[in-house]
Amino acid sequence: MDATDARILLALAADPRATVVALAEQLSLSRNTVQARLVRMEQGGVLGSFERRISPKALDQPLTAFVTAQVNQHQLAEVSQALADIAEVVEVFGLSGETDLLVRVVAADAEDLYRVAGQILAVRGIERTTTALAMRELVPHRLTPLLRRAAEGR
Amino acid sequence: MDATDARILLALAADPRATVVALAEQLSLSRNTVQARLVRMEQGGVLGSFERRISPKALDQPLTAFVTAQVNQHQLAEVSQALADIAEVVEVFGLSGETDLLVRVVAADAEDLYRVAGQILAVRGIERTTTALAMRELVPHRLTPLLRRAAEGR
DNA sequence: GTCACTTTTGAGCATATTGCTCAACTTGAG
DNA sequence: CTCAAGTTGAGCAATATGCTCAAAAGTGAC
């Protein structure tokens, strides 16, 4: 990904529904170029799944919580699969140390969250968990600052 | 958001570049309906920014880390602003307790991460931090399971 | 059941976009 | 210089979009 790609993505971030023609005009590039680069980015894994744009709040899951878990590392694969089977589990990272997991979950309300936390703790191979509720989104997910830097070639 | 909206989003998740016409046909809905619902979702905040689809790896920031920080809660606003000024800070949550922050950062390499962690610790109002590197993405961000549930009206 | 209200549908139409191809022109690396 | 890759402008057929409208179908209140 070069600076031009970053400029295209920035324009798209500003207006997700912008057409290729509009992007080309705005960026003073040929339509062909924008089209080719977009295809390349889409196929090259620069763009993740569309699901990422969907807000869980719209799915009546306004609560976000982070569960850290200690696992028996021999059962990491099974644990990982069991967590993936829980719908409310949105994202799981293996943290440094190989024994700690960070599980991002969403829930409809406090009771729902309690239930999900219980499901996680019940997974075979998970030893200990702590749950922290996300009270405020102080900085909503964003990549614009990095995109801007990349667009300027730095 | 109702079950029909969820079905539209599911179809879009499967093929982000699908046209409205294709979605309508696939879902056996009228093109008008799909178009109207998409506009409504886009304007109603169901869809978050396009940036969410961009992979930081493509921006030469293959490392993800989670920094937890303790803050003086009287300075929460200033701290929040200072964190937002760091480009590598991708997302910040205020966790239950009002005194803990979870900061998601990306970095180019270990050295870069060290630098960013230092910047965070240097923010006035931040008392203590711990940094955990995300070694593996065990469950990549996904909403499909919840979407499927919503699509079935449960 | 009836009324009012919202949503969906199908149709139509002008305009814009897409996907594709091609040849010519730049650009940077070796 | 020479090659390979990227960009550009042009063109073209097929398709999608944005918009409007009126009729049909659901929905909930009473």
TrEMBL record, chains A, B:
It comes from the Bacteria. Keywords: DNA-binding, Transcription, Transcription regulation. GO terms for cellular component: cytosol. SMART domains: HTH_ASNC. InterPro entries: AsnC-type_HTH_dom, Dimeric_a/b-barrel, Tscrpt_reg_AsnC-like, Tscrpt_reg_AsnC/Lrp_C, WH-like_DNA-bd_sf, WH_DNA-bd_sf. One of its GO terms (molecular function) is sequence-specific DNA binding. Signal peptide: none annotated. Residues 1-62 form the HTH asnC-type domain. GO terms for biological process: response to amino acid. This is Lrp/AsnC family transcriptional regulator. It comes from Streptomyces malaysiensis subsp. samsunensis.
